[in-house]
Design a protein that fits this description.
Blueprint lengths: L10 E4 L12 H11 L4 H15 L14 H14 L4 E5 L7 H15 L5 E5 L3 H7 L3 E5 L2 E6 L1 H17 L2 H10 L4 E6 L4 E3 L3 E9 L6 E9 L2 E7 H5 L8 E9 L6 E11 L5 E5 L6 E5 L16 E4 L2
Parallel strand pairs: 1-2, 2-3, 7-14
Antiparallel strand pairs: 4-5, 6-8, 8-11, 9-10, 9-12, 11-15, 12-13, 12-14
Helix pairs in contact: 1-2, 1-3, 2-3, 5-6
Length: about 325
């Protein structure tokens, strides 16, 4: 890449956190060293020191050598120094997942505050569409060095997710055919509804599976929301669906989304041995079956717990 940029104000990059840290120096000494690299003198760093240490939650470790710190402790210290630099422009490259949950919450609160400050500019580079929707005022989708979309955060996040869904679906049929050739139990699926849905609509998928050993098997559909399994539709328990032959079977699954919050979810389909209750085939763990839920009224989260497990219709 090449180009020109004009900076009006001080800039702090959150790209290579901890660059310039010396593992043989103490945490205290590295604070002043890193501050010097950011352009601060000793007096300025002394004034910021207590706030830096407090934010990093490393008060008991500042006189230990940095080489004795865990990687998480080092990143927290570097992150805290960069924050206290109080620059006009912050460049963040995939650094919002620093530290444990409590520290992440503290960082999120900080950036939420920064986002509302009209005198500061934050450039966030990320693959997390949740972060884009949460923090950004405008967003840009870049592919192969070219700007593809320059629009609202919701629009750009939808385009990015849809792009990745299409890429993942290209590999579905190839994997399914490979398992057929070696006579392994197979299961695959595809989304037959639109991949971006309002929560007043229903998700629809088509599932294909085949067993080769004459054992009794049944399919299961698992829905993950924000990477957490929230429900499973078990064909054996809910619909008394099991198969004992080696033919290929297809069924459709439909799930109303009225109780889902706005966000991105994904599906995993499993083929389960009815007797041993173990998975003999699976599909979707690489996010091949992702979909996006939107609230058509406010765009805000509204749902609650899942009460509707959808319905299955056997096609053959």
């Amino acid at each position: 890449s090449a180009g020109n940029i004009t900076v009006n104000g001080s800039l702090t990059p959150f790209i290579e956190l901890g660059v310039g840290f010396n593992p043989e120096l103490t945490g205290r000494e590295n604070v002043f060293l890193n501050g010097a690299l950011l352009g601060f003198n000793e007096k300025e760093m002394s004034a910021m020191y207590d706030d830096i240490v407090s934010f990093a939650e490393l008060e008991r470790f500042m006189d230990q050598k940095l080489k004795n710190y865990s990687s998480g402790m080092q990143v927290r210290l570097a992150f805290s120094i960069a924050i206290r630099a109080n620059s006009d422009i912050l460049v963040l490259d995939e650094v919002l997942a620093v530290g444990d949950e409590a520290f992440q919450r503290k960082c999120n609160n900080y950036f939420e505050k920064i986002r509302k400050n009209k005198n500061k500019t934050v450039v966030l580079v990320t693959h997390s569409m949740e972060s884009v929707r949460k923090y950004c005022n405008v967003a840009i989708l870049i592919r192969n060095g070219k700007v593809i979309v320059n629009s609202s955060p919701d629009h750009v996040a939808d385009e990015y997710s849809l792009d990745n869904i299409e890429d993942s679906n290209e590999h579905t049929s190839m994997n399914h055919e490979a398992n057929h050739r070696v006579k392994k139990p197979t299961i695959s699926a595809k989304i037959t509804s639109r991949p971006i849905l309002k929560n007043t609509e229903s998700l629809k998928i088509e599932v294909n599976y085949r067993n080769y050993n004459n054992r009794s098997v049944y399919p299961k559909v698992v829905i993950n929301y924000s990477n957490v399994p929230i429900m499973a539709a078990n064909a054996k328990l809910l619909y008394d669906i099991t198969t004992h032959d080696t033919k290929e079977h297809t069924f459709e699954y439909e799930l109303p989304l009225f109780e889902f919050n706005k966000g991105e979810a994904n599906i995993v389909v499993l083929l389960v041995d009815s007797e041993q209750e173990v998975n003999v085939a699976e599909f979707g763990y690489n996010n091949e079956l992702s979909f996006i839920i939107k609230n058509p009224k406010t765009g805000e989260k509204i749902g609650g717990i899942m009460r509707d497990l959808g319905k299955m219709v056997i096609k053959k």
